[in-house]
Amino acid sequence: MTFPEALTEAVHDHPYPLLFATISGAHLYGFPSPDSDWDLRGVHVLPAREVLGLLGGQDTVQLMNDPRLNHPQMAPYGTEIELDLVTHDVTKFFRLLLKRNGYVLEQLHSPLVVQTSPAHAELRALAARCVTRHHAHHYLGFSANQWRLFARESPRRIKPLLYTFRTLLTGLHLIKTGEIQANLGLLNEDARLPYLDELMDQKRSGAEKEPFSGDVAFFEKEIQRLTRRLQEARDTSHLPGEVTPETTHALSDLLVTVRLKDLP
Asked: What is the edge-to-edge ordering of all strands in the sheet holding 60-64?
């Protein structure tokens, strides 16, 4: 995939060094609309002076719709680009990895890489050891929230419906294999749900707020079926129930190594 120039410029202009920056959201999930914004996620490294001093630093940096990015020459599809950039400091990100947080796993393993580093590769390897059966809770909760959003909207939109399916299928794949896969098209090669291809085609060729006009009752039954499958997979999973102390120590060692690189 060719990234808009604005994404690399935003990474270059970040106030702190970046361990990595990857693309998330609809572009990662495989169903961006022509007017979808670009979700850029990553990990930054606060300088030791800010970590050790009294003034502190930004453990989260967020940039949304910076006017510098709204330039026609930087925009895909001939429209102005909207960018949502969020990065966490390494300590915060590492702590999230040790929790049942699917977001950080997806960001870390996104194949749409804008910037990387040797520590990024090390972290990906360690993150595989942080996956537990309890990550199912993240995906069950997120899918339930997306379905409620879809059900209460008027008019209803395709986007939250696709997010519901994407979340459930990512959760199922993770609990069964221990591996992250966030692209709904690739997930559906295994799930073989024919209606998903049609929904994704509508989203990709339509607008970010593309309306939904299908049978809500049918999709509710499908969501309930996949939810039960994810619950059953969690209850019978061979994944560990918690992260081992060895993995926690390895993450801590990597964190120290990253911090020490900033010291004179």
From this structure: 60-64, 83-89, 38-44, 18-24, 113-115
Q: Tens digit of pLDDT for each residue in 118-139?
A: 999 999 999 999 999 999 999 9
In which domain, by residue range, is 38 found? 17-130
* Residues 38-66 pLDDT 10s: 999 999 999 988 888 888 789 999 987 65
User: Running DSSP on this structure, what letter comes out for residue 168?
Assistant: H
Do the domain assignments include residue 104? yes
Q: Are 96 and 80 contained in the same domain?
A: yes
Q: Which residues contact 107 (CB under 8 A, 6 or more apart)?
A: 22, 24, 41, 42
The answer to the question of residue 263 being in a domain is no
Domain membership flag for residue 192:
yes
Alpha-carbon distance 100 to 135, whole Å?
5
Instruction: State whether 35 and 116 are in the same domain.
Output: yes
Residue 107: is it exposed, middle or buried by C-beta count within 10 angstroms (0-12/13-18/19+)? buried
- Number of independent structural domains in the chain: 2
Cα separation of the two ends of the chain? 38
Task: Say yes or no: 125 and 152 in one domain.
Answer: no
Task: Divide the 264 residues of the chain into consecutive groups of 10 and give the mean pLDDT of each group.
Answer: 85 94 97 93 93 86 65 42 92 95 97 96 96 97 97 95 98 97 97 96 93 95 98 97 96 94 64
Classify strands 18-24 and 113-115 as parallel, antiparallel or unpaired: antiparallel
Q: Beta 60-64 vs 83-89: how paired, if at all?
A: antiparallel
pTM here? 0.91
3-state secondary structure 101-163: CHHHHHHHHCCCEEECCHHHHHHHHHHHHHCCCCHHHHHHHHHHHHHHHHHHCCCCEHHHHHH
Classify residue 248: in a domain, yes or no. Answer: no
